[in-house]
Amino acid sequence: MRASRPLAATFATVCLAGFTAACSSDAATGGGGGDSLRVAANSTDRVPMDAVVEAFKKAHPDIDVNVTYADTDQLQSTLRTQLSSGTAPDVFTVWPGNGNPAAVQVLQQGGYLADLSDYDFASDIADGDKSVTQVKGKTYIVPVTFNGIGAIYSKKTLQEIGGSEPKTWDDVLALCEKAQDHDKVLLALGNQTPWVTQLADYALAATTVYAKDADFDEQLSAGKATFADSAWKETLQQYLDLDKAGCFTKNPNGTSYETSLSDVGSGKAVGVVQVTTSIPQVQKEAGDAELGMFALPASNDAAQTRIPGAVSAAYGLNAAGKNADAGKKFIEYLASQDGQKIYAEEGGTLPALPNDSFKANPALNVLVDMQQNGKTVPFMDQRWPNPEVQQAHFTAVQKLFSGDATVDEALKIMDDAVETS
Predict the structure, then answer these.
(1) pTM, to two decimals
(2) What pLDDT, in 10s, does the model give residues 159-189?
(3) Which 3 state secondary structure label does DSSP give 215?
(4) Strand pairing of 307-311 and 269-275?
(5) Distance separating alpha carbons of residues 367 and 141, to the nearest angstrom
(6) Which of 39, 43, 308, 323 has its CA 20 to 30 A from that of 370?
């Protein structure tokens, strides 16, 4: 659930065709001899990872670091192939929970991840994050960032349409009208990029589903609940209602992630519902314009509003890696105060582990406040029964927006995926 800035996207496009070959950024590649460390990361994390590697190199000048970047879908599928063939990197992105083919609970079943339980950082993981970073009580990933999903917007553009941050569902609809009156849309939407499809309804579901039923995912896994007979029906309908009200880009399925960010930067859109790791990319597009972020309201009771917030960037150590010593040092640096501070500052998000030296980007204030007040909800796919559900969700949303599925049919697609467990 993360995205890449235009430069990173161009680079990743070149790399995707041959991901197993060396394809790294200049900033992330060491120039000396000694140990060689191979790292695979999501293209969305190029900016913070490059900065972390640069700092790591200063502390370990004898270790060459080669970072390969790829977009989410390619990284997930290729990583499984590499792990099974013994050609995987030493350290690589691992998604928390159970929501996709490269999630910790999925990869650990194959014995691909080294046990990190004895590392000092393991005892610092928040209790609420242990369910998505551990398997049977053992830690297999180092959580690096705490990320959120909200409406990232240009304060300049919001002011131009005479609007203010919405607090209720009706406020959102009224703000959509204001944007249209100024020949803009409130929210750019790039559903051509599959992983983007999930973000807006995750933002809505945090309130419509999980504010009332925090245990929905557990019930779903236990066979005691379905998408079709839950408030997910209301969520998908609201997603469509926003589209029908003109709140989104005119052709979401024909708009890419990169274009959606450009639309915010150019003022065609007030904002975009995105993960907070996209803030640096949005800022690059918006230039000097100050950014803000709000939780997307889905109720007319403002007290009910929740925001998705959870461990986002995380890394695992290859259990069969050829450079275990260098890999361990890199994992330790990712867990360190300095490593987490650099990653969070450069990535526009929060550290996943306690860090007194970190000062959040002002645009993240809403996420910080809601986290402190217990109004965050884990990313939905992290706790779904199997990886197929997320992929089915991508398909269902694209079918909704193309008119090839009704809400009920979309929910059935998702429920069918649950039954493959």
Answers:
(1) 0.77
(2) 999 999 999 999 999 999 999 999 999 999 9
(3) coil
(4) unpaired
(5) 23
(6) 43
